[in-house]
Amino acid sequence: MLYDNLGINSQGHLTIGGLDAVDLAGEFGAPLYVLDEDQVRANCRTYVTALREHMPQGSMPLFAGKALCFKSLYPVLEEEGMGADVVSPGEIYTALAGGFPADRLYFHGNNKTDEDIAYALDSGVGCFIVDNHQELARLDEAAGRRGMRQRVLLRVTPGIDPHTLQAINTGRIDCQFGVPIETGQAARFVADALSREHLEVEGFHSHIGSQIFEAEPFCDAVDILLDFAQAMRRAHGFVVKTLNLGGGFGARYQESDPVVDIPGNIKALSEHLRRGCEEKDYPVPRVLLEPGRSIVANAGLTLYRVGGVKTIEGYRSYVTVNGGMTDNPRYALYHAPYTVLPASRMNDPRDFRCTLAGRCCESGDLIQENILLPQPRRDDLLAVLTTGAYNFTMASNYNRLCRPALVMVAGGKARLAVRRQTFADLVACDL
After folding, report:
1. If you compute the radius of gyration of the chain from its CA atoms, what whole number of angstroms results?
2. At a CB cut-off of 8 Å and minimum separation 6, what does 337 contact?
3. Facing residues of 417 across strands?
4. SS3 per-residue string spanning the chain
5. Cα–Cα distance measured from residue 8 to residue 43, given in angstroms and rounded to the nearest whole number
6. Which residues are catalytic?
7. N or C, fewer C-beta in 10 Å, the chain?
8. From CA 41, how far away is CA 96, in angstroms rounded?
């Protein structure tokens, strides 16, 4: 099994968190997102414990809500000692609706509107990750009108290529996020921020990309950021209190993917940071990380019903399911790899090579190609693994399809966390 929270019961059915996937689909319907809360908690504790053990006091993981965002998730994150990274007023609203403390929210975004800024300030968001000069000016003005001083981190780009997928590489110089260090623009960005009366600059933010399995790219980023911090101390007397190194540790989508040693990576990163600070006689800043995928990806799977099989002689066979790019657009976007299991027939021989296709009127609506399943039958239940991240949050109503329900399993019990959309929901905003 790809993950320890998966198993096979005496009926030959896939289990997640000890619960029968066939029973879950029977009770809640399919397509169905299933999230193992116990696995989410275990992943949170891995980060919280490693940061407390290896990094300076005050260091903390911030869950990246873009990976998965719904109300019932935030009490879990809060109980496990996480902060939260939010990228829109909608994510702020969801976190607050889930009872998450506003002062532990860190607000991202490369184009925050005036309305976004106002909403975040009025909601008491703890810290803004400021992306550009225009945002500095607007945020300073808005904070001044409220008679407050807002904590900020400045997003800078270190010019790191972590050799990840280009679509999720955000550390390079030519990127729409942040201000590049190499061109000298980040130095001007810092000077501008420090001149703002109503902003309290705590440090820098950097995000080099996603699906990174080792510590080295983050260590490379730390070297660049510490050199930059040293230059800013000499130029302005400014000492960084907080260094946010973003997210990026990967998740296993297939057996060929490496297992990530998150505590080991954090320890190695801490040792590298401390050595760098010692060499520069620089106070060691607290460290924030922004895990998203590595908190929820392996805790989730999606269940589908087989509709039919179509074999194009001399080419390939298609197995169609009752979902697709509306609930998982990642293969259509960038051919993301997945592991697909025959959830209702786990002990049957897997000797039928096929492409798993969705139900949308779109030739690109594929979930995975070149997989092996038992000879499929109508209503077989299939499970696509590692869908806890960037599936629910990227889902759409293309073809006017209803979005699936989301069920959380914990302690051997299942509960509905997000109900399935209805046809009435599809027209609820129509006039």
Report:
1. 23
2. 253, 254, 368
3. none
4. CCCCCEEECCCCCEEECCEEHHHHHHHHCCCEEEEEHHHHHHHHHHHHHHHHHHCCCCCEEEEECCCCCCCCHHHHHHHCCCEEEECCHHHHHHHHHCCCCHHHEEECCCCCCHHHHHHHHHHCCCEEEECCHHHHHHHHHHHHHCCCCEEEEEEEECCCCCCCCHHHCCCCCCCCCCEECCCCHHHHHHHHHHCCCCEEEEEEECCCCCCECCCHHHHHHHHHHHHHHHHHHHHHCCCCCEEECCCCECCCCCCCCCCCCHHHHHHHHHHHHHHHHHHHCCCCCEEEECCCHHHHHHHEEEEEEEEEEEEECCCEEEEEECCCCCCCCHHHHHCCCCCEECCCCCCCCCCEEEEEECCCCCCCCEEEEEEEECCCCCCCEEEEECCCCCCCCCCCCHHHCCCCEEEEEECCEEEEEECCCCHHHHCCCCC
5. 22
6. 361
7. C
8. 19
| 67 contacts 293 by C-beta, under 8 angstroms | yes
In tens, the pLDDT along 33-54 reads: 999 999 999 999 999 999 999 9
105-159 pLDDT, tens per residue? 999 999 999 999 999 999 999 999 999 999 999 999 999 999 999 999 999 999 8
Q: How far, in Å, CA of 96 to CA of 112, rounded?
A: 19
What whole-number distance in Å separates Cα of residue 30 and Cα of residue 15?
16
What's the confidence (pLDDT) of residue 147? 98
Dist. CA 400–CA 430, nearest whole Å? 13
CB-CB neighbours of 291 under 10 Å = 26
Nearest to 91 by CA among 60, 118, 111, 120: 120
User: For residue 80, what are its two tokens?
Assistant: 């496990």
**Which of the residues in the chain have pLDDT under 70?**
161-174
In sequence order, the β-bridge partners of residue 43 are none
d(CA 205, CA 290): 10
**With the CA atoms of 280, 56, 154 and 224 taken in that order, what torsion angle do they form, in degrees rounded to the nearest 10?**
40
CA-based torsion, 158, 161, 167, 168: positive or negative = negative
CA 34, CA 3: separation in Å to the nearest integer?
Answer: 14
Decide: pTM greater than 0.90: yes
pLDDT of res. 161: 63
